[in-house]
Specification:
This protein is an alpha+beta fold. The protein contains eight helices and nine strands. The strands form four sheets. The protein has a three-stranded mixed sheet with strand order 8-1-9, covered by helices on one side. The protein has a two-stranded antiparallel sheet with strand order 2-3.
Length: 268
């Protein structure tokens, strides 16, 4: 099934090596500071509770802790989560208001001034990364933007710039994929899987790990083809349907007003 969306060429990508993360949460604080997100709460829970940490409107990036069995032993692993910035983002395709845009250099950016609050993007996201400001009177969606102004200037995202253990590596996607393959091939501790290389057609955020990704809160039941491959056949009718529905409601409104006017004249 053909569709008009194509993956960007020569985009930037970020490789996350989960084995290096120490769970310091410096990235979550830097994200809040750079994006001017309110410090609603300090998410420092007990070890058994940190696995439950999820993204929300106050936290565009989060670190969860997972107790995993590896080689007959119990190990603890921290996992960084944020929007994966799909090469062909289902959220942007689903948004008929064009409030979400995929940039050729990687980021998927949200423009609140265009948002109509339909939340189709939340339903479309295969990774459940798009959140909503339920606590606001006039809410928007909320997600990581991948610091697009910094990426455009050749700088690392705010979260990456403060990481003390160099968990993340930024570069051209081809180079990042080559680095990831070389790393997992030359070290037996790694799982032979680069998360984000093929998931839903590929993402700008890539992960390597020494334990299975499904044990770290990552969805592994997503297809390898972009979601638009399955949805474009009917999503292309979204705009015409919305226009048609609006015209129908307008016609009904005018018809009702006309009947009311005639009824008033008859009474006179």
């Amino acid at each position: 099934m053909a569709h008009k969306w194509k993956a960007p060429e020569n985009s930037k990508a970020i490789l996350v090596d989960i084995t290096k993360c120490i769970g310091c949460d410096a990235c979550t604080v830097a994200c809040k500071m750079w994006n001017d997100i309110e410090f609603k709460e300090i998410r420092r829970f007990h070890a058994e509770d940190r696995e439950k940490i999820k993204l929300d409107a106050y936290h565009w990036t989060s670190i969860s802790l997972h107790k995993v069995e590896k080689d007959g032993k119990i190990v603890w692993r921290y996992a960084k989560h944020q929007c994966l910035h799909c090469d062909i983002p289902a959220c942007a395709v689903a948004c008929f208001a064009t409030a979400l845009k995929k940039y050729p250099n990687g980021p998927v950016v949200f423009y609140p001034n265009l948002c109509v609050g339909c939340r189709y993007c939340m339903l479309a996201c295969p990774f459940d990364k798009v959140k909503y400001e339920w606590y606001k009177t006039f809410p928007w969606i909320a997600k990581c933007h991948m610091c697009p102004t910094r990426i455009a200037e050749g700088k690392a995202p705010a979260c990456m710039g403060v990481c003390p253990t160099n968990v993340m590596t930024l570069g051209d996607k081809d180079e990042i994929l080559a680095l990831a393959r070389k790393t997992i091939e030359n070290d037996d501790k790694y799982v032979k899987h680069i998360y984000g290389e093929k998931e839903v057609g590929g993402t700008a955020w890539l992960y390597i790990s020494d334990v299975p990704f499904e044990k770290l809160g990552f969805r592994t039941d997503v297809p390898t083809k972009p979601m638009t491959y399955y949805s474009y056949g009917f999503q292309k009718y979204t705009k015409p349907a919305m226009v048609g529905w609006g015209m129908l409601l307008t016609a009904l409104y005018l018809y009702t007003k006309r009947r009311e006017k005639i009824a008033k004249e008859e009474k006179k």
